[in-house]
Design goal:
Layout: E1 14-18, H1 22-33, E2 37-41, H2 47-51, E3 57-59, E4 73-76, H3 81-93, E5 97-100, E6 113-117, E7 120-124, H4 131-144, H5 149-158, H6 160-166, H7 170-180, H8 184-191, H9 195-206, E8 213-218, H10 229-237, E9 240-243, H11 249-252, E10 260-263, E11 266-267, E12 270-271, H12 275-287, E13 291-296, H13 306-315, E14 319-323, H14 328-336, E15 349-353, H15 365-368, E16 374-378, H16 384-393, E17 401-406, E18 414-419, H17 423-427, E19 434-438, H18 445-448, E20 463-464
Parallel strand pairs: 1-2, 1-4, 2-3, 4-5, 8-13, 8-14, 9-10, 9-13, 15-16, 18-20
Antiparallel strand pairs: 6-7, 11-12, 16-19, 17-18, 17-19
Helix pairs in contact: 5-9, 8-9, 12-13
């Protein structure tokens, strides 16, 4: 890209806009908002410019070279390509910053898309190649960026010296801001526009001893677009991240580069790090004063042993938070076109794990074998033959539709369909992580599956057994 992104002050500086139409009006508004001393050269003015005529100097004439005299920034925004080219050539020859509105590639300056929470500004550009994409990105960022962050930036600016004095190292300062920026008390003060109250609150927090914290974050079923905004925010603030094998590479790439990554790759049949050691690592890292994210696939409270980890943290007196995620039962089935409930087929859904505790306690198979419900089984591949046997033995018809979803919501998603009597054979055709769905709704994948992991697939493939 030829343009270097810069923020340049134009306050009180002379700026010339050549043209009086819609584009010129938009550029003029931007210049006026930044304090530029604007002159508009045009025989006629757009209605929007006419409404703000008192804010700039209007020269009711065509462009001439002498209009460039003393200008800091020039915008060529007429509907005449020859005039725009002449303005560009003359301004460029004089070394004046110039924007050619109809040709960003021939401009020394381009106007980026802007998302603003004064004094916070985010500016971005596609170099003029895809303005629709810039508009889309602007809309997304505008929705994501909290409205009160402008006030937060103002307060932080006023307290910058005090924070530097209170915390000696950049790591300590970063840890302080990561801890307080989303605190509900501070957020409430900023949303109420009580900046003096927010300053007082922050000063009190500076006097508090530094302490670590653990945030239990659900990474969702795999598709990074299914992360919650809060989860993404925590990944960007983390100093240490302990992550499971089920967390996708695409999600790991969203973690701030400076964070320490610790793999605790728990996987069915392959617990590379015992749970007790994971608990100990969380406590040790937090006691060292660090902001720790425990990143777990799906939802941390859905068969993820998240509660056990929180119990260890609570016993050690460590602060913690929980950020829920979309569990596989909701995410993978949605991407496979399988509704968990349906008025004609299932009035309830039951989630169970295929893993039993070491004492071998079995679930209530009689209740699980009832009709008109959806049974979703996590981590059940290794016990598929046993699951089939127990469900059929307790009365569930062997012809009951089943579906197995491997790596749901990701580009590697694979969906295999069949009947309960074939469950063990179906399980041999997929790999972990995979989700079992048993019930009449599983058959709806044949007609409702919509997700295309590979662009060439149309419609999405649903493998059938038999």
């Amino acid at each position: 890209m030829e343009h270097l992104p810069l923020f340049i002050s134009i306050k009180h500086k002379p700026c010339l806009v050549v043209g009086g139409g819609v584009v010129a009006a938009r550029k003029t508004r931007l210049l006026l908002a930044r304090g530029g001393r604007v002159t508009v050269v045009a025989p006629e003015l757009d209605a929007g410019l006419q409404a703000r005529q008192a804010e700039f100097c209007w020269l009711e004439q065509g462009f001439a070279e002498h209009h460039l005299d003393g200008q800091f920034l020039v915008v060529a925004a007429t509907d005449n390509a020859e005039v725009n080219a002449r303005v560009y050539q003359l301004a460029n020859r004089r070394g004046i910053l110039v924007n050619k509105a109809d040709d960003s590639k021939r401009s020394a300056v381009i106007f980026p898309s802007i998302v603003e929470r004064f004094p916070l500004q985010i500016a971005f550009s596609t170099g003029g190649g895809a303005p629709w994409l810039a508009r889309l990105l602007r809309a997304r960022l505008d929705a994501l960026l909290p409205r009160h962050w402008g006030a937060l930036a103002r307060v932080a600016g006023r307290l910058r010296r005090q924070v530097q004095q209170a915390f000696a190292s950049p790591a300590e300062r970063r840890r302080f801001w990561a801890r307080v920026q989303d605190d509900p008390a501070l957020t409430a003060l900023l949303q109420q526009q009580d900046e003096s109250g927010a300053e007082a609150w922050l000063r009190r927090e500076m006097d508090q001893p530094s302490r670590g914290e653990v945030i239990l974050v659900g990474a969702g079923p795999g598709d990074p677009d299914l992360l919650t905004i809060k989860a993404l925010n925590e990944l960007q603030k983390a100093e240490v991240v302990l992550f499971d094998q089920l967390v996708s590479e695409e999600i790991l790439a969203l973690i701030r580069p400076e964070a320490e990554l610790i793999a605790v790759g728990k996987k069915a049949g392959h617990h590379s790090v015992p749970q007790e050691q994971i608990n100990r690592l969380l406590v040790e890292q937090a006691l060292a004063g660090k902001r720790v994210v425990r990143l777990k696939g799906g939802d941390p409270f859905m068969f993820g042993r998240g509660a056990e980890e929180l119990q260890s943290l609570k016993a050690a007196g460590i602060r913690y938070q929980v950020v829920p995620g979309i569990t596989a039962a909701a995410g993978a089935t949605a991407y496979a076109g399988i509704p968990l409930t349906h008025r004609d087929h299932a009035q309830s859904a039951v989630f169970i794990t295929g893993h039993c505790k070491q004492d071998g306690a079995e679930p209530d198979w009689a209740s699980l074998a009832r009709g008109r419900q959806t049974l979703v089984i996590y981590m059940g591949l290794m016990r598929s033959a046993h699951i089939r046997q127990q469900l059929m033995q307790h009365g569930l018809d062997g012809a009951t539709p089943v579906a197995l979803i491997e790596r749901g919501t990701t580009v590697r998603q694979k969906l295999v369909r069949g009947e309960l009597r074939e469950l063990a054979e179906l399980a041999e055709r997929v790999a972990s992580p995979a989700l079992m769905v048993i019930g009449e709704v599983a058959a709806l994948a044949d007609s409702l599956a919509w997700f295309r992991p590979h662009a060439a697939e149309a419609p999405p493939a649903v493998e059938r057994c038999g």
